[in-house]
Amino acid sequence: MTKTFTIPQSVLWKDTYISLLDQQKLPLETTYIELRTLEDVWDAIVTLKVRGAPAIGITAAYGLALAASQYEHEDVSSFLVHLQKDKEYLANSRPTAVNLAWALNRMVNSVQNVSSVNAAKTTLIHESIQIHAEDEEVCRQIGENGLSLFKDGDSILTICNAGSIATARYGTALAPFYLAKEQGKELKVYASETRPVFQGARLTTWELMQAGIDVTLITDSMAAHTIKTKGISAIIVGADRITANGDTANKIGTYNLAILAKAFNIPFYVAAPLSTFDPTLDSGHEIPIEERDSKEITHVAGIQIAPTGVSTFNPAFDVTPNELITAIITEKGIIAGNFTKEIQKIFN
After folding, report:
1. Which residues are annotated as a binding site?
2. NCBIfam families, from UniProt (predicted)?
């Protein structure tokens, strides 16, 4: 029997603005903000009011459609020049997650052969809505494929937030847990806090609790002990970019978990849509890694916890090499074995 429960949504299109769940306010406040300009969208992405590679892509697509709807150009060529400029502006907001560039490129490509400015504006709105709708279906398919790897009663570890509020619905790494809930199966989730921004503590635990899913919070440094003492049967994570050989960029700390999975001989799964793959890059060595403000490390909730002037290193992501990945779960199936060969098959 299918069960109904609450699945939070992060991005809503409202015709004249974007309604966005402010993830910086979670879990203490559930606040939706209105994005009405391109600058609003850029700021929301940079300041992590929206985060999660698919959700960033969806928000950027809506943002480009929203901005274009306000252009006053009468000829298509001027319209497209302005659109390209705004696309590049949004694309520079965060460099690592490939869904951002993928969605923006798709938006621009959708209007290359339009006959009028009005047709272009309408096409962009329809394309952004389509990107949103497709992501929800993609996430459900990822969830179904991922759930096939787990059995009722399993305890599974995850990091960061690759859930409903990071996508259109269901999520990627968290999608199997929502699908299990719908089907009346019990999976226990252990969520790593995910320093320095605490996406696991603030977001993953919050959204899973909204759905009544069994979740336990741990600090990042407790992962090895938790795997050993709590019978963790697998680790599942999301992704921000996957290269042609299967190397995967994800939230900082993911690489640590992959090493632990190998040490404890448990599977390490990556869950991601095909839009997260970047076959133009041969390996993870070519992925640009975003470095963020030092205050994310030196301060917690605005309170300084480190000496003034201390040097910091704050990469937002790390890269897990393909040899540590058991399988990559996509909407088109589960990729395993020779990642280079199997990924090439999909994109050919």
Report:
1. 51-53, 94, 199, 250-251
2. eIF-2B_rel (TIGR00524), PRK05720.1 (NF004326), salvage_mtnA (TIGR00512)
**Residues 158 and 266 both lie in one domain:** yes
Q: What is the pLDDT of residues 202-235, one digit of tens each?
A: 999 999 999 999 999 999 999 999 999 999 999 9
Domain count, the chain: 2
Catalytic residue among 240, 247, 278, 318: 240
User: How many C-beta atoms lie closer than 10 Å to residue 103's C-beta?
Assistant: 29
303: left (phi over 0), alpha (psi -120 to 50) or beta: beta
Is residue 3 situated within a structural domain?
A: no
pLDDT in tens, 15-43: 999 999 999 999 999 999 999 999 999 99
Residues 103/132, Cβ–Cβ less than 8 Å: no
240 is catalytic: yes
As annotated, the binding site for substrate includes 51-53, 94, 199, 250-251
- Domain enclosing residue 251, as ranges: 150-347
